[in-house]
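Appendix B. Chain record.
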Amino acid sequence: MIFLIDYDRARGELTNIQMFHDADRRFAEDSRLNTELAQLRDGVKREVVLLQAANEQALRRTHRRYFADIAELAETDSQIRSN
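Structure tokens predicted for this chain:
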């Protein structure tokens, strides 16, 4: 699966996620480009990325920062440092 992530870094919020089948890579790439161009045109500054993972659960595990809030990330970081 391919995932199009639209993430507001300043607010620490996922604003949109879209899923595409691997065979639709070209469509996913076009969607990413169109999203970035629309944001640029509107003066919006967000992170727009395409990521590939077996499923959304795997994506949430490998790219947690897009899904966890700041408090959750800080808690995980604190736990890692204490070990």
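Further analysis of this model is presented in Appendix C.
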